[in-house]
C-alpha cells in the first residue's frame, strides 16, 4: 500500500500556502493545537495575539474538523522515495498554512517577565509537543473533538437504575478497579479506599473527574473551579443527561446527588476505555470485517503526528532545506511501513494465485476425466421430471386417502345412528303390538282409526293455515297502527318543543297564563312487540297491548289526547298570536327609532374620529421629536458611560497595581521577619556551640594538668629512691633540687 503522490500531496509551496492560509483551510486531518500558533518575537509573553483560531483544540477531533485527505492506495509502493517524501512535507516559513499571515512563530529569546505575566506565560509556552500542550486559559472557549448537537427540549430521563444499591456497588467497583489498574493514586498523589465511591468527599470527586478527563483529552488544563469547568466539559462530550446536573450539585456531590455523579463518572470511564481500545487498534478487526482497511490511515496518521512534532521543534529562522532534512527519516519510515504492509498483501496475493492455479489444474483434470456433461444433464432432467411426477402422485394419493378416511368415518357414524334408530323402532313396534294385543283391536279397527286421524289432521292443517293468514293480516294492521302511533308521538314531541320555545309550557310560563298546554298520549306504556306474539291469551291482554283500551276495544280519537286542540287550545293560541303580532309591531317601531338614534351617533363618532386623527398626527410629530431628543440623549449617555467605564478601568488598574505593591512589600516584610528569626536562631545555636567548645577545652586542660602533676609526683618518688640508693650522702642536695622543681611546676 502506498500513496499516489500525483493525487494528493502534503507539500505546500511558498506561493500557495499564503492563499490557503487566507482561506482558513486545513488540508490535514490533524486539527491545529493552540501551542502551534505562530507568534512574532516582538510581542513577547505579555500581549499574545488573539485571533479567531486562538482557542484550545483537541488533537483527536473538533467541531470544525476538515475532511480527511483521500489518500489513494496502490500496491507498488514506489511513490515514497526520499524525493517524494521531501516534496510532500515542505512547508513555508513566511506563512502558516493553518492560520492567517499575521500570526508568526515564537522566538527562542524569552520576553520581559513580570509578576503580571507569570500566570499567562504558562499558556504561551513554545511549541514543544503536540500531545502535552498547555491549554490557553482565560476567556477563550474550550474546543474539543466532540461536535455540538442541537439540544433536546426538556431534561432527558436517565434509564439507568442509579438509585439501586446493587447497581451503585457494581459500577462503583468497576470504576475503582479501572482507577487502580491505571495508576490513579500514583499520578494524582491521592489515595483511594473501599468506601471512597460510596461516601466520597468533594476532593475525591474533583481528582477522579480531572483524571478521567485527562484520559480523554491529555492536553487539557483545569484553570477554574469545578462547578465552572464540569458543565461545559459534559456538554462538549455530549453527555446525554448533562441538563440534570447543576452547579450547586457539583459544589456538593455527596448525599442524594452522589448516584447522579457516580453514573456520570462511570460514563466517562466507559468513554476513556473506548478511546483506549481505539488507540490500541481493537476496532481494526471490525473495520476489516466491514471491508474497510484502516492500516494505511494509521501509518499516515503516525507520519503526520511525528513529522508535525519535529516541524514544531524548528526555529523561526530555519530554512526549507533543514526542514526537509528533518523530515526525511519520517518519510523513509512511512515508506518502510507501507512496504511492510504491501509485503503482506503481496504474499497473500501470491498464495491466492497459487491456490487459483491449483484449482484451475484440478478443474481441467476433472473436465478431462469426467463423462459427457450433456448426457448427464439429460439424465438429470429425466430424473427431476420423474421425481416431480412421483411427488404429484404422492400428493394426489395422500389427498384421496384423507378423503376416504373422512368418508369412512362419516359412514360409520351414520351406520351407528341407523342401528340405534332401528333398535328404537323395534322397541316401539313391540310396545305398540303389546298395547294392541291388550286392547283386543282388530286390523279393521286400526285402519278406520288411522283414516279418521288423517281426516282430522287435514282439517287441523287447513284451520292453522287460515289462522296464519288472519294473523298475518292482523300483524300488518298492527304494524301500520304502530307507525301511526309513533308518528303521533313525534308530532306531540314537536308540539311540546315548540311550546317550550314559545313559553307556553309549563303552566307557569309567561305566555301560558296558568293554562296547561303540555300534550300527552293516553296509551299503555307496556312493550308493543310482545303484544301480538303468541296465542289468544297474549293478544287480548291489556298489559301487553298499547293499541287497546280494553281487551276487545281500541282507543277513541277524542280520548287519545289529554287536551281539546280544536276548541280551547286553538282559540287561546289565536289570541296569543294576535298579542305577539301587536308586540312585534311595537318592537319594529322601537327598532326604527333606535336605528335613527344610532345613525346620529355614528355621525357624531365620525366627527370625533376626525378630531382624534388630527390629535394623533400631532402626537406622532411629538413622538418623533421625543425620539430625536432620546437618540441625542442616548448618544451623550453612551459617551459618558464609555468615559466612566474607561476611568473605572484605569482606577481598577491603579488599585490592582497598588494592591500588588502592597502585597509585595508585605511579602518582603514577612521574608525579612523570617530571615531575622532564622539569624536569631542561628546566633543562639552558635553561642551554645561555642560555650560547649570552651567547656570541653577547659576540661581537657584540667585533665592534662592533673596528668602532668601525677607524672611529676611519680618521677619525684622514683628520683628520691634512686638518690637514696646511690648517693646516700647527697640526699639533702637532691631533696632541695626536687623541691625547687616541684615549686616550678606548681607555679606553672
Automatic annotation (TrEMBL):
Give the residues annotated as coiled coil.
Answer: 335-491, 570-689
Q: Which InterPro entries match?
A: Kinetochore_Ndc80, Ndc80_CH, Ndc80_sf
Report the principal subcellular site: nucleus
**Where is the region Disordered?**
25-133, 729-748
Location comes to: Chromosome, Centromere, Kinetochore; Nucleus
Tell me the ranges covered by the Kinetochore protein Ndc80 CH domain, including all copies: 125-277
Q: Which UniProt keywords apply?
A: Cell cycle, Cell division, Centromere, Chromosome, Coiled coil, Kinetochore, Mitosis, Nucleus
Q: Which GO terms describe its cellular component?
A: Ndc80 complex; nucleus
Q: What does this protein do?
A: Acts as a component of the essential kinetochore-associated NDC80 complex, which is required for chromosome segregation and spindle checkpoint activity.
The family classification in the record reads: Belongs to the NDC80/HEC1 family.
PANTHER family reported in the protein's UniProt record: KINETOCHORE PROTEIN NDC80, KINETOCHORE PROTEIN NDC80 HOMOLOG
Write down what this protein is called. Answer: Kinetochore protein NDC80
Amino acid at each position: 500500500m502506498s500513496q499516489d503522490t500525483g493525487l494528493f500531496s502534503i507539500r505546500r509551496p511558498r506561493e500557495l500556502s499564503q492563499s490557503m492560509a487566507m482561506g482558513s483551510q486545513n488540508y490535514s486531518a490533524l486539527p491545529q493545537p493552540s501551542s502551534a500558533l505562530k507568534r512574532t518575537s516582538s510581542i513577547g509573553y505579555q500581549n499574545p495575539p488573539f485571533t479567531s483560531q486562538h482557542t484550545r483544540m483537541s488533537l483527536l477531533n473538533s467541531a470544525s474538523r476538515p475532511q480527511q485527505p483521500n489518500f489513494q492506495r496502490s500496491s507498488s509502493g514506489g511513490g515514497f522515495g526520499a524525493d517524494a517524501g521531501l516534496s510532500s512535507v515542505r512547508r513555508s516559513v513566511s506563512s502558516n498554512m493553518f492560520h492567517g499571515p499575521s500570526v508568526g512563530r515564537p522566538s527562542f529569546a524569552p520576553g520581559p517577565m513580570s509578576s503580571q505575566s507569570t500566570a499567562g506565560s504558562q499558556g504561551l509556552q513554545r511549541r514543544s509537543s503536540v500531545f502535552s500542550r498547555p491549554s490557553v486559559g482565560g476567556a477563550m472557549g474550550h474546543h474539543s473533538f466532540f461536535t455540538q448537537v442541537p439540544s433536546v427540549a426538556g431534561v432527558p430521563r436517565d434509564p439507568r437504575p442509579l438509585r439501586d444499591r446493587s447497581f451503585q456497588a457494581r459500577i462503583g467497583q468497576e470504576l475503582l478497579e479501572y482507577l487502580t489498574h491505571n495508576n490513579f493514586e500514583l499520578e494524582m498523589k491521592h489515595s483511594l479506599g473501599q468506601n471512597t465511591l460510596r461516601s466520597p468527599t468533594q476532593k475525591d470527586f474533583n481528582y477522579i473527574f480531572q483524571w478521567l478527563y485527562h484520559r480523554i483529552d491529555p492536553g487539557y488544563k483545569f484553570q477554574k473551579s469545578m462547578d465552572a469547568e464540569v458543565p461545559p466539559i459534559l456538554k462538549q462530550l455530549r453527555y446525554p443527561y448533562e441538563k440534570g446536573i447543576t452547579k450547586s450539585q457539583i459544589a456538593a456531590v455527596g448525599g442524594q446527588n452522589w448516584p447522579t455523579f457516580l453514573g456520570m463518572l462511570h460514563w466517562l470511564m466507559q468513554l476513556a476505555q473506548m478511546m483506549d481500545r481505539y488507540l490500541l487498534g481493537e476496532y481494526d478487526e471490525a473495520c476489516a470485517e466491514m471491508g474497510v482497511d484502516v492500516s494505511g490511515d494509521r501509518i499516515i496518521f503516525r507520519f503526520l503526528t511525528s513529522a508535525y512534532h519535529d516541524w514544531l521543534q524548528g526555529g523561526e529562522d530555519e530554512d526549507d532545506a533543514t526542514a526537509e532534512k528533518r523530515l526525511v527519516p519520517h518519510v523513509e519510515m512511512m515508506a518502510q511501513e507501507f512496504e511492510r504492509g504491501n509485503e503482506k498483501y503481496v504474499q497473500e496475493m501470491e498464495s491466492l494465485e497459487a491456490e487459483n492455479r491449483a484449482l484451475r489444474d484440478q478443474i481441467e483434470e476433472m473436465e478431462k476425466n469426467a463423462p459427457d456433461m450433456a448426457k448427464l444433464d439429460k439424465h438429470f432432467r429425466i430424473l427431476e421430471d420423474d421425481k416431480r411426477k412421483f411427488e404429484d402422485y404422492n400428493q394426489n394419493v395422500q389427498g384421496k386417502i384423507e378423503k376416504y378416511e373422512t368418508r369412512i368415518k362419516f359412514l360409520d357414524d351414520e351406520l351407528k345412528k341407523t342401528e340405534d334408530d332401528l333398535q328404537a323402532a323395534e322397541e316401539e313396534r313391540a310396545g305398540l303390538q303389546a298395547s294392541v294385543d291388550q286392547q283386543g283391536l282388530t286390523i279393521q279397527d286400526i285402519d278406520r282409526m288411522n283414516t279418521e286421524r288423517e281426516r282430522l289432521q287435514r282439517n287441523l292443517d287447513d284451520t292453522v293455515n287460515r289462522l296464519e293468514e288472519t294473523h298475518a293480516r292482523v300483524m300488518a294492521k298492527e304494524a301500520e297502527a304502530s307507525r301511526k302511533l309513533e308518528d303521533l308521538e313525534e308530532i306531540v314531541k314537536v308540539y311540546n318543543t315548540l311550546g317550550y320555545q314559545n313559553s307556553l309550557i309549563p303552566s307557569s310560563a309567561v305566555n301560558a297564563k296558568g293554562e296547561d298546554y303540555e300534550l300527552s298520549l293516553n296509551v299503555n306504556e307496556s312493550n308493543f312487540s310482545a303484544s301480538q306474539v303468541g296465542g289468544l291469551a297474549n293478544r287480548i291482554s291489556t298489559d301487553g297491548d298499547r293499541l287497546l283500551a280494553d281487551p276487545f276495544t281500541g282507543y277513541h280519537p277524542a280520548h287519545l289526547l289529554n287536551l281539546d286542540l280544536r276548541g280551547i287550545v286553538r282559540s287561546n293560541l289565536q289570541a296569543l298570536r294576535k298579542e305577539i303580532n301587536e308586540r312585534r309591531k311595537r318592537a319594529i317601531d322601537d327598532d326604527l327609532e333606535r336605528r335613527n338614534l344610532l345613525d346620529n351617533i355614528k355621525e357624531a363618532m365620525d366627527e370625533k374620529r376626525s378630531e382624534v386623527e388630527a390629535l394623533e398626527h400631532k402626537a406622532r410629530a411629538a413622538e418623533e421629536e421625543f425620539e430625536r431628543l432620546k437618540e441625542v440623549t442616548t448618544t451623550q449617555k453612551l459617551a459618558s458611560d464609555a468615559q466612566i467605564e474607561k476611568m473605572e478601568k484605569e482606577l481598577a488598574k491603579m488599585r490592582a497595581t497598588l494592591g500588588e505593591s502592597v502585597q509585595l512589600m508585605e511579602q518582603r516584610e514577612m521574608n525579612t521577619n523570617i530571615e531575622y528569626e532564622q539569624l536569631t536562631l542561628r546566633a543562639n545555636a552558635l553561642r551554645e556551640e561555642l560555650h560547649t567548645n570552651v567547656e570541653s577545652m577547659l576540661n581537657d586542660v584540667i585533665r592534662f594538668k592533673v596528668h602532668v602533676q601525677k607524672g611529676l609526683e611519680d618521677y619525684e618518688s622514683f628520683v628520691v629512691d634512686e638518690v637514696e640508693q646511690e648517693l646516700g650522702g647527697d640526699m639533702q642536695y637532691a631533696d632541695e633540687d626536687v623541691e625547687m622543681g616541684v615549686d616550678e611546676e606548681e607555679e606553672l
